[in-house]
Design a protein that fits this description.
The protein is an alpha/beta fold. It is built from 18 helices and 14 strands. The chain binds uridine-5'-diphosphate-xylopyranose (UDX).
């Protein structure tokens, strides 16, 4: 099929490349010329494992090209909208200006029978409004909402082999036609018996925000338990293992630590709350404000633990920060708890040196006041305390005996509860985890 993908960020660039890899003829479009130039040269503008490989092979096949000209979408039968919906400045609501602009700019290039497919995470009600815009234009195209559940770091796999597909479609024949077109796009997932839910717009939009709200709640739940563990002497990791054996609960997303960040979870729970308030049902999801508060508190907790552990005033201390990206396998530092902790410590006067396998470049753009190093050894040297805030394998593999010889004072704050506390203590370290005695 001929497809266009509007927006070539984390979502769109992966989607365009994966769809071409699956055999479709794809044009990826973005208004950012730098991004398009990089993609067209076969170099993704961000780190995503597996993406360079499929980008290169799809481009070599001739099935994938990139453009800054929306007119190049003409001729495609299905047009995916994968632009960002960041948090609005000065509000918790989602900024829909990129989605609206993408649809408006696409309208003149749509033909009768074309399908516009929203993938961006939007407040419930957006698809119905956009369907009205498309209908009013008289172009004869229709709209479906097909939320994306990909995780950064696993985006290629999640796009090529999704764990489920959700289509929000209009009622009647138009909806059947839309579902049939999407089944053709996702023919390989269909052949693999991927679970499919065909539903209305509102449900499809809500599925995405509800899934992210649930995941965020699960993380904040375990972080709240870890606060109780701290004051009661319980061990949060053993607690998570024990409750996680209950299949109804499950062990995943029960890792206590410095909390969730990234371009999705934090802004999605805020936008959900804002939308529920607009709909007059703010109280239904008011617990998400608590989820957010618990999450943000973990960053303060890690900073406070560091200050307390230091044997000297913070403004005279060198603090080594291991981790900047919001999670491993990503260079994304949007709303990253790790970067936030580094910045807060720097703001208190500490001489912060931070390292990360992928997140330095993006962090430097936002916070040039921090000192960055690509070397773990240099980062640790003469440190008065070490704070681990992203659980990269490179950090988990650090030999505590080797590291103890580098630092000035062997204190480690494990903000991800990821190290072997006994091994670090045996090597002479003061080891401090969150909710771990
Ligand atoms: C998330 C959703 O998982 C994905 O389905 C959706 O499409 C986009 O948002 P992503 O932002 O890539 O994906 O990251 P995810 O793997 O969900 O992690 C989010 C944050 O939660 C990270 O900062 C991670 O470190 C943190 N986290 C995760 C925890 O603190 N504890 C856990 O147990 C799990």
């Amino acid at each position: 099929m001929k497809l266009s993908v509007i927006g070539c960020g984390y979502l769109g660039a992966v989607h365009a490349s994966a769809m071409a890899e699956l055999g479709h003829d794809v044009v990826g479009i973005d208004i950012d010329a730098r991004k398009i130039d990089q993609l067209a040269a076969g170099t993704p503008p961000f780190y995503e494992p597996g993406l360079p490989e499929i980008l290169t092979s799809a481009m070599a096949s001739g099935r994938l090209r990139f453009s800054t000209d929306i007119a190049d979408a003409a001729g495609a039968q299905v047009h995916f909208i994968g632009v960002g919906t960041p948090q609005k400045a000065g509000s918790h609501a989602a900024d829909l200006s990129y989605v609206d602009a993408a649809v408006q700019s696409l309208l003149p290039h749509l033909a009768a029978g074309d399908l516009v497919v929203g993938k961006s995470t939007v407040p419930v009600g957006t698809a119905a409004r956009l369907a009205g815009v498309i209908e009013a234009s008289g172009c004869g195209a229709s709209l479906a909402w097909n939320p994306e559940f990909l995780r950064e770091g696993f985006a290629v796999k999640d796009t090529i082999s999704p764990d489920r597909l959700v289509y929000g479609v209009p009622a009647g024949a138009a909806g059947e036609h839309a579902a049939a077109q999407l089944n053709e796009v996702y023919a390989s997932a269909m052949a693999a018996q991927t679970p499919l839910i065909v539903t209305d717009y509102a449900t499809a939009e809500l599925v995405k925000v509800a899934a992210n709200a649930f995941l965020a709640t699960k993380i904040s739940f375990i972080n709240a338990m870890s606060e109780i563990a701290d004051v009661s002497g319980a061990n949060i990791t053993e607690l998570a293992d024990a409750i996680g054996f209950d299949n109804r609960i499950g062990r995943r997303f029960l890792n206590a630590g410095v909390g969730f960040g990234g371009g999705c979870l934090p802004k999605d729970i805020r936008a959900f709350t804002a939308r529920a308030e607009e709909l007059g049902r703010g109280e239904s999801v008011s617990f998400l404000k608590e989820v957010d508060a618990i999450n943000m508190r973990q960053r303060q907790r890690v900073v406070a633990m560091t200050l307390q552990a230091l044997d000297k005033p913070v403004y005279t201390a060198k603090v080594a920060v291991l981790g900047l990206s919001f999670k491993p396998h990503s260079d994304d530092v949007r709303d990253s708890p790790a970067l936030d902790v580094a910045v807060q410590l720097r703001g208190l006067g500490a001489d912060v040196m931070a390292t990360d396998p992928q997140g330095i470049e993006n962090s430097r753009l936002r916070h040039p006041q921090l000192t960055y190093s690509t070397s773990i050894e240099e980062t640790l040297r003469a440190a008065d305390a070490v704070v681990l805030v992203t659980e990269w394998a490179e950090f988990k593999q650090i030999d505590p005996v080797w590291a103890a010889a580098l630092v000035r004072v062997p204190i480690i704050i494990d903000g991800r509860n990821t190290l072997d506390a006994a091994a670090w203590r045996a090597a002479g370290w003061i080891y401090l985890g969150l909710g771990r005695p």
